[in-house]
Design a protein that fits this description.
Low-confidence stretches: none
Structural class: alpha/beta
CATH topology: TIM Barrel
Number of strands: 12
Number of helices: 12
Radius of gyration: 20 Å
Number of domains: 1
CATH architecture: Alpha-Beta Barrel
Helix content: 40-55%
C-alpha cells in the first residue's frame, strides 16, 4: 500500500489557520522579502511527510482561486524531496499538451523521475472560459482528453510525434528534453460515469475511486468500492490493460472514532475564521464515511480491508499539521509498510 497527501492549499485544505490566512492575504501585496505563507506551510508539511514515509503528494489546481499554481508549487517543492512523487493536476483544454509534455519532462528530471499527472476533465465552466479554455461536455470532453494523453505519451517516448485529431493537430513535434526514466510519467484520473470509466480503463494508469453519494455507512462504502473495482477490472480486460486503484479518505486518529472526529472538527472550527461549508460538506464529510477515523488499530484494520479489495494508494485527507503528519506516518504508514514487507 502506498500513502499520499494533498499539498495544503486553500482549495483543498481545512483546519489550517496559516492557509486560511494566506487566502485572506492573496489579493494584497506581500511585505518586502516575504514569501506567500501557503508556500512556506506546504514546503514544511510536504517535507515532513517525505521524512515520515509518504509516497506521493497531489498538487491540486484551481486557477480561479487563491491557490499558487500547481506547477509552480510542484516544481519548487518537488525539487527538495527525496521520496515523494509529485502528482500535478492538469486540465485538458486549458493548456496545450505539447507545453504540458515539456513541463512534465522538466519536473520529472527535477524530481529524480518521480512525477505523475492527474487528468481533470473539468466542471468549472467560468474558470475554463476565463483562462482561455474551451468548454466541452459529455463525449467530447473524453475525446479531447484521449488526444491530450496520446500527445503526451508520444512526445515522451518518440523522437518526433504527429497527431491529426479532432481537438489537437501536432505535426513533427519534438521534445529535446525527455522524462528522467524510460517509463513515462503515470496518468491518474477520476470519473464515476460509464463513459469516464471506459476512458480510464483504456488510457489511464490509476483510478481515483469516487465516494458513492448514496453510501451512508462504512459498510456501504466498502460494498460500493468492491463493485467499482470489479466493474473497472471487467472494463480493463476488454482493452487488455490493468489500472491501479486509489482512494482519498479522511484520516484522523484518536482514542476512539468520536474523539478523533471531534478533534478534527474542533480544529477546523477554531482555526479558520470563516470555514468554507462547501469544503466541509463536499470534501470532508463524504470522506469520513470511509472508516479511517478512530484508533490507530481501527484505521490500520480499515486500510487493510481496502487493500484486500485491490486498492494500492490511500491519499489522505487530514488536518494539515506537522505533528499530525508525523503521527499518521508513525501509526499508520510505517506499520503497514513494515507488515507488507514482512508478507512479501
Amino acid at each position: 500500500m502506498q500513502f499520499g497527501l494533498y499539498a495544503p492549499i486553500p482549495m483543498a485544505t481545512v483546519g489550517s489557520p496559516e492557509v486560511a490566512q494566506a487566502a485572506e492575504e492573496a489579493l494584497s501585496p506581500l511585505p518586502a522579502g516575504q514569501r506567500d505563507l501557503q508556500f512556506d506551510v506546504a514546503l514544511d508539511l510536504v517535507q515532513t511527510a517525505d521524512k515520515a514515509g509518504f509516497d506521493l503528494c497531489l498538487f491540486a489546481e484551481r486557477h480561479l482561486g487563491h491557490d499558487i499554481a500547481a506547477w509552480v508549487m510542484a516544481s519548487a517543492i518537488g525539487s527538495r524531496l527525496d521520496n515523494i512523487r509529485a502528482l500535478t493536476a492538469v486540465h485538458p483544454g486549458l493548456v496545450d499538451p505539447v507545453m504540458i509534455a515539456k513541463l512534465a519532462a522538466s519536473l520529472d528530471r527535477i524530481c529524480k523521475g518521480r512525477m505523475a499527472i492527474n487528468i481533470v476533465n473539468g466542471w468549472f465552466d467560468e474558470e475554463f472560459t476565463m483562462f482561455g479554455g474551451t468548454v466541452l461536455q459529455g463525449e467530447e470532453r473524453y475525446e479531447r482528453a484521449v488526444e491530450f494523453i496520446t500527445i503526451l505519451r508520444g512526445l515522451w517516448t518518440q523522437e518526433s510525434f504527429t497527431l491529426k485529431g479532432k481537438h489537437y493537430n501536432v505535426e513533427n513535434a519534438r521534445l529535446l528534453l525527455k522524462p528522467a526514466s524510460p517509463t513515462p510519467p503515470e496518468i491518474f484520473s477520476v470519473s464515476r460515469s460509464p463513459r469516464g470509466r471506459d476512458f480510464i480503463a483504456e488510457h489511464c494508469d490509476w483510478w481515483f475511486i469516487d465516494f458513492p453519494k448514496e453510501a451512508e455507512s462504512t459498510d456501504e462504502v466498502l460494498r460500493a468500492i468492491d463493485d467499482a473495482v470489479a466493474d473497472m477490472n471487467s472494463r480493463t480486460q476488454r482493452f487488455g490493460r490493468k489500472v491501479r486503484y486509489a482512494l482519498n479518505p479522511f484520516v484522523a486518529l484518536g482514542t476512539s472514532r468520536q474523539d478523533a472526529l471531534e478533534k478534527a472538527v474542533n480544529k477546523i472550527l477554531t482555526t479558520e475564521k470563516d470555514p468554507d461549508p462547501r469544503k466541509i460538506q463536499q470534501r470532508m464529510l463524504p470522506a469520513t464515511r470511509a472508516g479511517c477515523i478512530g484508533t490507530p488499530d481501527d484505521v490500520r484494520a480499515q486500510i487493510r480491508r481496502f487493500e484486500d479489495l485491490g486498492l494500492d494508494l490511500i491519499l489522505c485527507k487530514m488536518i494539515p499539521t506537522a505533528d499530525n503528519i508525523r503521527l499518521i506516518g508513525r501509526e499508520i504508514v510505517e506499520p503497514l509498510r513494515t507488515t507488507n514487507k514482512a508478507v512479501a
